[in-house]
Amino acid sequence: MLAKDVVLVSDGGGKAFAAVHPIESRDLVARFLLGLTRKAPHYEGGVHVEMRDINGQTGLVVRSGDGIVTVALMHVERNSIRNLYFVRNPDKLRHLLK
């Protein structure tokens, strides 16, 4: 489902682990996503993923027992994911605590 020229952008704001530079291409983005699943921290009680409307788009909210750890948004064109945006900066996630 990834477009050939997909781009992944991640924002940790220096407060959470994130990719420093945009990741470009289907191969590199797929490798990055697979690496995330292998290296993801193990939260006590696990994580919960929910779909939620964020800024008029469908997003994924990833929560641990400590709160929201990541929000992911996708830009889809012609049935392919063109862009992925991960927000991990806790300052930018506070408004989602509701």
How would you describe this structure to a colleague?
This protein has 98 residues and is α+β, with helices and mostly antiparallel strands. It has helices spanning 26-39, 90-93; strands at 2-11, 23-24, 48-54, 57-64, 67-77, 80-87. A six-stranded mixed beta sheet has the order 2-1-6-5-4-3. β3 and β4 (57-64) form a beta hairpin. The chain is globular.
Number of helices: 2
The best one-word shape is globular
Report mean pLDDT, rounded to a whole number.
87
- Secondary-structure class: alpha+beta
Give the H and E element order.
EEHEEEEH
Rg, Å, rounded: 13 Å
* CATH architecture assignment name: Roll
Low-confidence stretches: none
Strand content: over 45%
End-to-end CA span: 31 Å
Order of strands side by side in the largest beta sheet? 2-1-6-5-4-3
Report the CATH C-level class. Alpha Beta
CATH topology: Nuclear Transport Factor 2, Chain: A
Q: What is the multimeric organization of the chains shown?
A: single chain
User: How many domain regions?
Assistant: 1
